[in-house]
């Protein structure tokens, strides 16, 4: 469908609300999908909140790595809470309306938190690099103040990078149609609904998304290249295995996150493969947050011990 471009009149918006289409092909299975995603949502939130609680309750886990992981879990909880409740309503009732302002607010929050996640992943890579490759300087560099500044920087960069394109898109004209072929307000489908010229905004967003993904990926590649070299020089096989185990979880999450986001966002033409985009978006908003607690920390012996200690204290208080 060709886009009707409004010429000299800008910001002539007649659309007051949008319709989130969701997954019309499987709407007849809506109640089953509702139950599956509701359980996945509860499990994700409980898993990530458990990680945050354990890290802050046990002094042995109050280290830079676990501080970054707790920040990562917090962002994941916020991200899925922005998306999943509306998705659950779609599964139960079909298409759902969302106001113009609420739609762009949701779009910004998702992009802001998504960019923050990638910056946090690069910080986690740097943390592992310092711990393994520069152990003598680790405690000096990774002070509580530095950790706070790094996490604050991730949030600030995510906010600034995603604010401009979303605000610019919200100022364009939307004169119909208003059906978003997605289960949340995503940037690509919204640009397709605008009846203004969106090429410059699409290019800006593409470049910003590419920078966020590539910059964090480059930092990760450099960090892990040095980590691998350092690990291979360790004299003991047991030391090498232990060092690799601290990085394997991070690499698994990176594969899921980068793969799905590159597929969704780093394409100049957003109008294509919408069904595949929805499926890839489900990976980021449902599957990855569900797996992160297991992949990252719940398989960690330190976290296991801390969880047992917390449960023991609760039982003793009874």
Overview features:
mainly alpha
Sequence-ordered SSE layout with sheet pairings:
Elements: E1 17-20, H1 30-57, H2 64-93, E2 96-99, H3 100-133, H4 135-141, H5 144-170, E3 179-180, H6 187-193, H7 199-232, H8 237-265, H9 274-298, H10 301-317
Parallel strand pairs: 1-3
Antiparallel strand pairs: 1-2
Helix pairs in contact: 1-2, 1-9, 1-10, 2-3, 2-9, 3-4, 3-5, 3-7, 3-8, 5-7, 7-8, 8-9
The radius of gyration computed from the alpha-carbon positions, rounded to a whole number of angstroms, is 22 Å
Secondary structure: number of strands: 3
Largest sheet descriptor: 3 strands, mixed
The fraction of residues assigned to DSSP E strands is: under 5%
Strand order of the largest sheet: 2-1-3
Mean pLDDT score:
82
Shape: globular
Summarize the helix and strand pattern as letters: EHHEHHHEHHHHH
Number of helices: 10
Distance, first to last CA: 65 Å
Instruction: Determine the structural class based on helices, strands and strand pairing.
Output: mainly alpha
Uncertain residue segments: 6-10
Helix content estimate: over 70%
């Amino acid at each position: 469908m060709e886009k009707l471009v409004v010429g000299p009149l800008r910001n002539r918006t007649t659309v007051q609300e949008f319709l989130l289409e969701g997954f019309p092909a499987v709407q007849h299975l809506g109640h089953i999908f509702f139950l599956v995603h509701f359980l996945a949502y509860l499990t994700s939130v409980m898993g990530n909140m458990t990680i945050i609680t354990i890290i802050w309750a046990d002094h042995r886990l109050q280290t830079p790595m676990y501080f970054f992981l707790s920040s990562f879990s917090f962002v994941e909880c916020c991200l899925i809470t922005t998306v999943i409740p509306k998705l659950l309503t779609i599964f139960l009732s079909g298409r759902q309306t969302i106001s113009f302002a609420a739609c762009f607010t949701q779009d910004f929050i998702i992009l802001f938190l998504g960019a923050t996640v990638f910056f946090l992943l690069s910080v986690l890579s740097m943390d592992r690099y310092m711990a393994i490759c520069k152990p003598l300087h680790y405690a000096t560099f990774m002070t509580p103040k530095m950790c706070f500044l790094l996490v604050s920087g991730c949030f600030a960069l995510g906010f600034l990078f995603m604010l401009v394109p979303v605000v610019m898109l919200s100022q364009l004209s939307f004169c119909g149609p208003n059906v978003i072929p997605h289960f949340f307000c995503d940037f690509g489908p919204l640009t397709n609904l605008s009846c203004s010229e969106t090429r410059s905004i699409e290019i800006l967003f593409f470049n910003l998304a590419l920078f966020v993904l590539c910059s964090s990926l480059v930092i990760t590649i450099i960090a892990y290249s040095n980590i691998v070299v350092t690990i291979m020089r360790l004299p003991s096989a047991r030391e090498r295995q232990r060092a690799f185990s601290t990085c394997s979880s991070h690499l698994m999450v990176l594969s899921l996150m980068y793969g799905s986001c590159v597929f969704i966002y780093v394409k100049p033409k957003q109008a294509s493969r919408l069904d595949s985009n929805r499926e890839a978006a489900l990976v980021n908003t449902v599957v990855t947050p569900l797996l992160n607690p297991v992949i990252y920390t719940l398989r960690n012996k330190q976290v296991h011990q801390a969880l047992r200690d917390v449960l023991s204290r609760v039982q003793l208080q009874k």
